[in-house]
Specification:
heterodimer, A: alpha/beta, Rossmann fold, 3 domains, eight-stranded mixed beta sheet, six-stranded mixed beta sheet, 14 strands, about 45% helix, about 20% strand, B: about 325 residues, mainly alpha
């Protein structure tokens, strides 16, 4: 029945390949002169994080560091933990990570720090004691309040809106939503936030839920799509339903992905920072840490001038968000 | 009469109608037939793929590579289309062709070497995702590679083209499972593999064919989503394998094979979609959604088990 020859062959191949890769890793490890940096995004192969990595790669090659860009293929905390484990085993010098779930990566990041690895978070934060510094794109408070102001600009001082977010455990998105709610309460009491719906970075879910929202809440004036993947899908849903006039769409997304939708009117406003700059700044901060510079508020790092630093929480803040609409979206390419 | 009431299909139909009624009372916007049609349309991926994996589930196999096949086919479609800008019908044809090819690969490996389908399709899933991500990184740069198809503008008898795809899928699969030798051998092999082999049902060609069907459905979905979203997204439909497993099992398929029906799968798909999307309509905070879905699934499956046990006790002489 069973073809034992094939099984035996398979086992041989597996053992051989394990041995071979083991050997290569052994060779890697001997070379201590080059500083290796592991960059681990939430998901690999989505434009946002890949653009970040492009920025990081340029700076890394400027300083002669070796950059390993690797990450989970779905926004999965468990596989991110495995990747960190592998990087500790490989004895990298620095780990730059955008955690999927801050709690899930906390123990393994502590372990990495005990092994003498510098841990830097970028884009999303881990808990404060499990990393050396967090390179934040904007301060959460600024961004949240900025977003809420823009929503009010779009729909007026009275109305209702709903949020489509990445996932319910994404730490940065949740913090922004808290600040959005805070600004809503403080300044725009007549605007109602109807609901928050996660999409797990899946365009199909974002598309379906945008259509559900528009059908379920007739009083809806605006949808805020808070993830780079959800933005285009939500715009497509609004375009398909012919609701471009009645429902305003405001996205946190990349200008390239949203360009056609902003031009045909299905999306009205896009906000983001420059992920390329975020990647570069992360790498400049890592360089400063390797050189044992002391981070201080208002310091300059290569091209980055007067960067804010929160010494209590150890957070570097890159700057103000950028808004893109019909008039200026062609000026940006990322 | 009693027989009809005791069937899984009629029971699912009742539960679905009750659910639809309750949600419609709480939010009348859900009741409109036009919305229900569009709901089925934009969730077409679940209908098409659940029906696509039905034959191989009845045969006692599992396909974990379906999400991977969708992504790989999607990438290939976009790759071809960046240069050529094909019409919609050709995109669907390419999708079906590539999907069938990918399905045939798994089918060949499983059928020829008699390996467990869980392991083979798990491995294929990784291969497909790896392949798609590599191709996407290396060859696809433009975010909006496809021409802007207005998928919703293609209408047949007033219904969207996605509804048409679902109907075609249901009819052809019903015919296949009930009126062809393939259907008979799928049910027999699923019921008793050794017996089926003794009788002389062809194991290899049946395995090839059921995986071909699964591949076809993945290819069709890939074509639909690539023209719907006009871009490549390698995270789209990730985790769909497990949602499909839930749908198919609620629809009456035994995980060990041998039972299951086209109608049951369709109804359970409808049920899950009404449940998932209806929760947005009744304005329940999203934290509760997954919990509610889990509880309802357990209730349905355990009620069914319980009833079966009672029935068996009745039959004891």
């Amino acid at each position: 029945m069973f073809n034992w020859k094939i099984y035996r062959g398979l086992v041989c191949v597996i053992i051989l390949s394990l041995a071979l890769t083991g050997c290569f890793e052994g060779i890697d490890m001997k070379d201590d002169s080059v500083i290796t940096i592991a960059m681990i995004p939430k998901i690999i192969d989505i434009p946002y994080f890949d653009t970040c990595a492009d920025g990081a790669t340029k700076v890394a090659s400027k300083y002669g560091y070796e950059l390993i860009y690797t990450g989970p293929t779905t926004a999965d905390a468990a596989s991110q933990v495995n990747i960190i484990q592998e990087m500790i085993y490989k004895k990298v010098d620095v780990i730059a990570i955008a955690p999927v779930d801050p709690e899930a990566v906390k123990p393994i990041l502590m372990q990495a720090r005990e092994a003498g690895i510098i841990v830097v978070t970028y884009d999303a934060d881990a808990s404060k004691d499990s990393r050396d510094v967090f390179v934040s794109q904007v301060s959460a408070e600024n961004l949240g309040r900025h977003i809420m102001d823009n929503v009010a600009n779009l729909i007026g001082e009275e109305g209702a809106f709903a949020i489509i977010t990445a996932s319910m455990t994404a730490d940065n998105q949740n913090t922004w939503i808290n600040w959005i709610e805070q600004q809503n309460e403080d300044v725009y009491p007549l605007i109602e936030l109807l609901t928050v719906i996660p999409t797990d970075e899946d365009q199909q879910k974002a598309y379906a839920n945008t259509r559900n929202l528009i059908n379920a809440y007739p009083e809806l004036d605006a949808i805020l799509a808070m993830s780079t993947e959800a933005g285009p899908a939500a715009a497509k849903a609004i375009e398909a339903m012919g609701e471009t006039e009645n429902v305003q769409l405001y996205c946190l997304s990349m200008p390239n992905a949203m360009r056609n939708y902003v031009k045909n009117g299905s999306a009205d406003l896009v906000t983001l920072w420059d992920p390329h700059r975020l990647g570069s700044l992360t790498m400049e901060i890592i360089h400063a840490l390797i050189e044992e510079q002391i981070l201080a508020d208002g310091s300059d790092y290569a091209d980055f001038e007067n960067i804010q630093y929160d010494e209590v929480d150890k957070i570097i803040i890159m700057g103000e968000p950028l808004d893109f609409d019909f008039s200026n979206i062609d000026d940006y390419d990322f | 009469m009693k027989n009809i009431l005791h069937k899984r299909e009629s029971y699912l139909l009742v539960v679905t109608l009750v659910l639809w009624g309750v949600i419609s009372i709480m939010n009348p916007n859900f009741a409109s037939p036009r919305f229900v049609m569009s709901l089925i349309g934009f969730n077409g991926v679940y209908f098409i793929c659940a029906l696509g994996i039905l034959p191989l589930m009845i045969k006692g196999e599992i396909d974990l590579s379906i999400g991977g096949m969708i992504t790989a086919t999607n990438v290939i479609i976009v790759l071809i289309n960046i240069k050529l800008q094909l019409p919609l019908i050709l995109i669907v044809a390419i999708g079906l062709l590539v999907g069938a090819l990918l399905g045939a690969v798994s089918g060949y490996i499983i059928g020829r070497f008699k390996l467990p389908s869980v392991i083979v399709t798990l491995a294929m899933m990784n291969i497909y995702y790896g392949f798609s991500k590599y191709i996407n990184r290396v060859m696809v740069h433009d975010d909006q590679a496809l021409p802007n198809y207005n998928f919703q503008d293609y209408k047949i008898f007033g219904f969207g083209i996605d509804i048409l795809f679902i109907v075609v899928m249901i009819v052809s699969l019903y015919y296949l499972m009930h009126y062809t030798s393939l259907g008979r051998s799928v049910y027999t092999i699923g019921g008793n593999k050794r017996l089926a082999e003794l009788i002389g049902f062809p194991y290899f060609s049946t395995t090839m064919k059921v995986h071909l069907i699964s591949g076809l459905s993945a290819g069709l979905v890939a074509a639909i989503s690539s023209v719907t979203f006009n871009n490549v997204n390698t995270t789209i439909h990730s985790g769909i394998e497990f949602e499909l497993l839930i749908i198919v099992i609620i629809g009456g398929v035994s995980i060990l094979g041998g039972s299951g029906s086209v109608l049951g799968t369709f109804l359970s798909c409808l049920f899950i979609i009404i449940l998932r999307n209806g929760l947005v309509f009744v304005r329940i905070p999203v934290f509760w959604h997954d919990m509610i879905i889990g509880v309802i699934i357990i209730l349905i499956v355990s009620y069914d088990m319980f009833r079966h046990r009672v029935n068996l006790n009745d039959w004891r002489p």
